[in-house]
Amino acid sequence: MRISEALLNESIADDIQNSLLRGLKPEYGPGTEAYENILKGFRRTARTSKQVFQKQDGKTDNSKLVWALRWYVLDTKMHFVGMGMRDNPNDPVLYTEKEQERVKKQAQQANIPFGDSGIRKIFPGGKDQFFFSLNHFLEHDGIGNTIRNMTFTPEDNPTVVLMKMQEVEDEWVKNLKDDERAIQHSGLMTDIDSGKETEWKELFDEFMTFPDGSGWFDLNRAFCKQEGESMGHCGNTASYKHSDTILSYRTPHKHKEGFWTPHLTFIMDSSGFLGEMKGYANKKPTEKYYNVIRALLLDDRIAGIKGGGYLPESNFTIWDLPDAEEIVKQKPSLTGDNISKYVENIGVDDTLVEIIQSKLHEGQRFIPRDTFEGKTSAQAMQVEVQITAEYPDLHSLIEQEVTNSMYSQLLLDGGTSGWIGHRDLEPWSIKDWAETLRRDNNKDTGHNELWKHIPEASRNILNKEFATVLGDELEEDILNNAIKYDKKVRQGSFGIAEMLVEAVHSGWREGIKTEIVTRFQRSLEDEDSQFISHSGGGISLAIVLEKPGLPGDSPNRCYVTAPLIEMVDYIVRYEETYGVIEDNWWSESDVNDRAEDDLMRSDVVPAAQFDVRQAAKDFHQSMISMSPVIKSTDEQFHISYYIDAKGIDPVADEYWKREEGQRVQRKLQRESVTPKKVFRLAQVLTGSSSKKGHDKLHKMCSRLGLSKEQCHKLTSKAGYT
Known about the structure:
The protein has about 725 residues and is an alpha+beta fold.
């Protein structure tokens, strides 16, 4: 995309954004939580729209971008105006009376009725489901380009647009001929995804066969254009995960020997759970396929059903079978697409946990902190569930998980910005104030103190070096010695004195961060619950500390939990509305509202304590990595240090691991093990979704001495993903 096009897109989005903010009451202006949340929602939608609405040449379709964002603005304003119409004193009325009347008039002109605050009337199924459906049509090989070339008029609301797209798909499906649907199952065949001629048995495996000659086939790929073209759907191109595989039920063609016709497309994840389960043209499988479906579901390789995908209401469900109750008794996990029914009929057990985990995205956690054994369903629902990774300290957890809090904004401060509090009228930077604290405190508070905490082997080397070079000029003050030494030896280049100054600076910076985290911890303890709130799902989130009361930067294992009953309720509601669980379902959560009172610069900075251990660590790491030449031994610092500290100091060991890794890499390069071989294979596999091909590529890279990360980096240049 050219710079001019990018600027045009930004300009369009900014203009429409301003229309969303117009009419807000002064008390909900810049700096308030409501204002920031509105902005975040709009920007997230703008990013999604730019990704979805692209022309065939990959450029943003600005007309569709404008169309989507204008409807989003009206949808959002209708939401908040509608809340005010219910006369609930707990619901904030964000917009002025004049703006409310304007919104009501716009809705009336667009023939959009006001609904409740849950599911609005503009985007069918909600905004997320709308974009999910759009991806289905746009990624459809048979109709994708037709959909991209469609024109949206300002009067076409999202419901009308989806109906028009559905009509295009229905017409395409109607024109598919049965003979054209048949897929080759003999000899050499061209893989439609890669364009490569391959023996058909190399492409898909027989998963299960039946006496009539039909069978389920594992296509060994997450999406398949050929399956999609034959079945009148997208072939899972719109919503696949790399770990998915397609199970296709096929029958031998009566008149074309060596050809088979697909009838059912089921998506299985890496854990054996079935997600999307559709018949021809995304329709619900009919009764004539129940026997082969039943056989599949009872196979030990199928862990259960989780549901989801495009049009989840059209998925096969275990309750479609007349003997569903009997089958469920044999395999309760088959009710995983209806958690409410599972809890009602089965209760809360380890299988339920497994089902929920299958619905979450890769990397998300769902770990009960107590056993269900001996508990009633009501008692089991009260169990706390760990939903994040475990972190070594509270500091680390805030940086990674509490991404929208004032705390994290300060902790991630890179030196140019920081949180602007209502009483602090200018941004404040941890980096800048650490520099101020370093200057304001005399050098004895920092440089000489950290000298006592660096490893003895390091001190011995530098003391000997200073004594050798400075002789009679040697002082007690370590910084003065370092300055004199650098002038004589380093001749003005970056030297030991600067390392000392920067290390002390780092100690003060860490001290300020520790104070911020401490204040966070105190606010949690003051609430006597450790709860933080989830702004979207209404889930009570708790930060659990292994050792409550310790400072936030102390080794103290911690993680975030949520009550199982609230998680189940959230997932049920979300699936009913959108069909899928979003991958960042709680990352937009905010820490308690009192945070701003705890983070005034005037309170935090004076309370900060110099972190001498962090300063010493920083200095020592700098000495290892920069490794100046030591005059007394005529060798680099890290060599002298490693001789004295080998096997003792992990910093030295890590340095030498890196050195060894670079040495091996240089050796490989000298032996002509170059990326060219990888590029050639990647080019062959470009566009292929074959799991076998992907695994083959990694195997070759491994033989070349390349890691998975290096393999992905190299092959991405060739277009393979």
